[in-house]
């Protein structure tokens, strides 16, 4: 379906900033979760396993499977976001925390490698680099790649670095109410620049298909928005005034105080969100001069297990899974996956 005038008011995922508090969207880890984590670390040390060498069958976490499914239900079918508090960041090293985060994450989905190096997690830390996750630049509301996005805070900055989230369903309702003429270009979609992540020799720098900002399949609304990637593609594939106005208005609504709920992700807290219904942002920050004290988050991207997969528009599915935004470390090619 395109150019949908459907309203999502009443859906638990169609929230605005005033509807949320940190307490309302949080899940607190308890003794049995920490005991399960201890068991993971004992096994990892005994078998000399690391984040890079552990297999998909390691650490099944059957002891806390019921809570993991509760978390999945909240993220996949309700608000689309949850904050998991109480990760033992003072007990384990950042490397060990990465293994724990990955072990929990793979119960929710299939971890996605985030670079051609085969990184199962990405370190979000200011290294003065050109990529957003290695800098302190502010980030407007955007999507990541993969069905689920997880961020675990190990250390926070000296000042700033707040997180923001916004509901795609609520943004859609706002556009229906105020500028329904923008729905057609948002549903038709935009070309996307790969920003250097294309598989060498396998595809061009810009998608040869439009990726919809909004798409509705089997009654489920999904979103995709990384405005800088769309704007860079537009240097070669020109946008109409209506397309640009629609893109700018979407971003304006998403970043507004009415829709953007802002909070500090404290050390030991992890946010987990649906990439298809929730956008996220970050404010700028001032960091510590010492590298070992700098703000550090671990980023996890997940595809969904077959039973949890979401029906997707073919071009969104192509971007997220068939084309992929990462390169497999095993064969140097973009992996072929059947669904998100």
UniProtKB/TrEMBL annotation:
Check the record and name the InterPro entries matching this protein.
Answer: AlphaKG_dependent_hydroxylases, TauD-like_sf, TauD/TfdA-like
Originating species: Sorangium atrum
Q: Superkingdom of this entry's organism?
A: Bacteria
What Pfam families is this protein classified in? TauD
Which keywords does UniProt give here? Antibiotic biosynthesis, Dioxygenase, Oxidoreductase
Work out whether the entry's keyword set contains Oxidoreductase. yes
Q: What is this protein called?
A: TauD/TfdA family dioxygenase
- Which GO molecular function annotations are given, in alphabetical order? dioxygenase activity
* Keyword Disulfide bond on entry: no
The Swiss-Prot or TrEMBL record lists the needed cofactor(s) as: Fe(2+)
> In what residue span(s) does the TauD/TfdA-like domain sit?
54-301
């Amino acid at each position: 379906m395109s150019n949908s005038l459907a309203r999502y008011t009443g859906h638990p995922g169609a929230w605005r900033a005033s509807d949320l508090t940190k307490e309302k969207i949080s899940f607190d880890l308890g003794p049995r979760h920490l005991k399960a984590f201890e068991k993971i670390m004992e096994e990892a040390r005994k078998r000399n396993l690391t984040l890079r060498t552990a297999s998909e069958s390691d650490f099944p976490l059957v002891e806390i499977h019921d809570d993991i499914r509760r978390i999945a239900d909240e993220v996949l079918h309700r608000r689309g976001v949850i904050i998991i508090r109480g990760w033992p960041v003072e007990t384990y090293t950042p490397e060990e925390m990465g293994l724990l985060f990955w072990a929990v994450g793979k119960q929710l989905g299939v971890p996605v490698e985030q670079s051609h190096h085969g990184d199962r997690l990405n370190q979000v830390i200011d290294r003065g680099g050109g990529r957003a996750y290695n800098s302190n630049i502010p980030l407007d509301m955007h999507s990541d790649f993969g069905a689920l996005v997880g961020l675990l805070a190990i250390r926070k900055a000296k000042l700033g670095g707040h997180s923001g989230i916004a509901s795609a369903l609520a943004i859609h309702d706002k556009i229906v109410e105020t500028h329904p003429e923008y729905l057609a270009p948002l549903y038709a979609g935009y070309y996307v620049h790969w920003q250097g992540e294309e598989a060498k020799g396998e595809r061009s720098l810009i998608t040869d298909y439009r990726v919809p900002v909004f798409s509705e399949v089997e009654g489920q609304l999904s979103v995709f928005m990384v405005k800088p990637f769309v704007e860079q593609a537009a240097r070669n594939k020109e946008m109409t005034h209506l397309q640009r106005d629609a893109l700018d208005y979407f971003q304006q609504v998403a970043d507004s105080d009415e829709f953007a709920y802002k909070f500090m992700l404290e050390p030991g807290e992890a946010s987990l969100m649906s990439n298809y219904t929730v956008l996220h942002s970050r404010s700028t920050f001032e960091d510590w001069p010492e590298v070992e004290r700098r703000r550090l988050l671990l980023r996890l991207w997940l595809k969904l297990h077959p039973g949890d997969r979401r029906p997707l528009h073919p071009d969104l599915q192509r971007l997220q899974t068939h084309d992929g935004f990462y390169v497999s470390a095993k064969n140097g090619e973009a992996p072929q996956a059947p669904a998100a």
